[in-house]
Amino acid sequence: MKKIAGLLALLLVLTGCAPAEKHQKDFFAMDTFFELTAYGEHAPEALEAAEALSMKLDAELSAVNPESTLYALNEAGGGPVDSDCAELLETALPLCESTGGAFDITLLRLSQAWGFSGGEERVPEVSEIAELLRYAGWEKVVYEDHTVTIPEGAGLDFGAIAKGYAGQKISELLASYGVESAMLSLGGNVQVLGKKPDGSLWNVGIADPSDEARIAGSVAAENAAVVTSGAYKRYFEQNGVRYHHILDPETGAPAESGLLSVTIIAENGALADALSTALFVMGEEKALDYWREHGGFETVLITEDGRVLATDGAAFTPAEDSDYSYSVVG
């Protein structure tokens, strides 16, 4: 038996079918844990480069780090932007427009008032929210010739798109090193490169919003981002009321859309990240209308009344022990 096992192992090596070696790099960036797993000969140096890239993006795109590029831009009311900020603006502003403002990158001061972007978590006065809403609004941002002008009294915040952008850039970087199989977990954002080493699709679990120790189901994916936004991820409670971090740009308060979570599956990580927030704010009906009108992605919605709705291309499989009712949307 031992001789047979040895011969099989030798045969795998000789035929080029030896299992690809797994390599992992874990670190803290963008206010969350990055867990990067890659396979193959060039994975170690690729992961080292990926960590360096992640730290670079963190140093540029944080809205709350006084040393960051974006912080300086907000303090100055705008100015020239580098390649990453420029690319994010060129991606984000059209999405702000196409989502009717459900995705808005000018809510930093409101997020700070709630304590979700630094400071103590609290419920702002209605008058304070109204005042801050006066200054916000993506349509007030002027961007041309790699120079941005930020509305007075507002601040740019890439928090709902930056991790997706980072996942996309890291995936592209790994591919440039010859890595063909990788899974990147960026605090709720998942980006997969290629297929699993055995040639099968990656299975990415979607958390059950009522119990994060369980999954509501999973999606099968390759060369894609799978990004989930949910009311259960970051919140605080005051006087028995739960306030989550996804703000509705119309009200300046946590969105009340009837959804518990939205998962987006798309080739582009930045797109998936931004749309997971936008569709959460929209609510079920408008979210599905947006999917039907624009396409280019798939989605899984989990509603407050216990339903899971998956678009027909999402490749979603419900968990066997799920308490949610499940339907496919076409």
Distance between the termini: 53 Å
Give the biggest beta sheet: 9 strands, mixed
Strand order across the largest sheet = 1-2-6-7-10-13-14-15-17
Q: Which percent bin holds the helix content?
A: 25-40%
Number of helices: 9
Structural class: alpha+beta
The secondary-structure element order is HEEHHEHHHEEHEEEEEEEEHHEEEE
Give the rounded overall mean pLDDT: 93
Structure description:
The protein is of the alpha+beta class and 330 residues long. It has 9 helices and 17 strands. The protein has a 9-stranded mixed beta sheet, covered by helices on one side. The protein has a 3-stranded antiparallel beta sheet with strand order 3-5-4. The protein has a 3-stranded antiparallel beta sheet with strand order 8-9-16, with no helix packed on it. Strand 11 and strand 12 form a beta hairpin. Helix 4 (83-98) runs parallel beside helix 8 (269-282). It is globular.
Task: Map the helices and strands.
Blueprint: H1 2-14, E1 22-29, E2 32-39, H2 43-61, H3 69-76, E3 78-80, H4 83-98, H5 108-114, H6 126-135, E4 142-144, E5 147-149, H7 162-176, E6 181-186, E7 189-193, E8 202-208, E9 211-221, E10 224-230, E11 235-238, E12 241-244, E13 259-266, H8 269-282, H9 284-294, E14 298-303, E15 307-311, E16 316-318, E17 325-329
Parallel strand pairs: 15-17
Antiparallel strand pairs: 1-2, 2-6, 3-5, 4-5, 6-7, 7-10, 8-9, 9-16, 10-13, 11-12, 13-14, 14-15
Helix pairs in contact: 2-7, 4-8, 7-8, 8-9
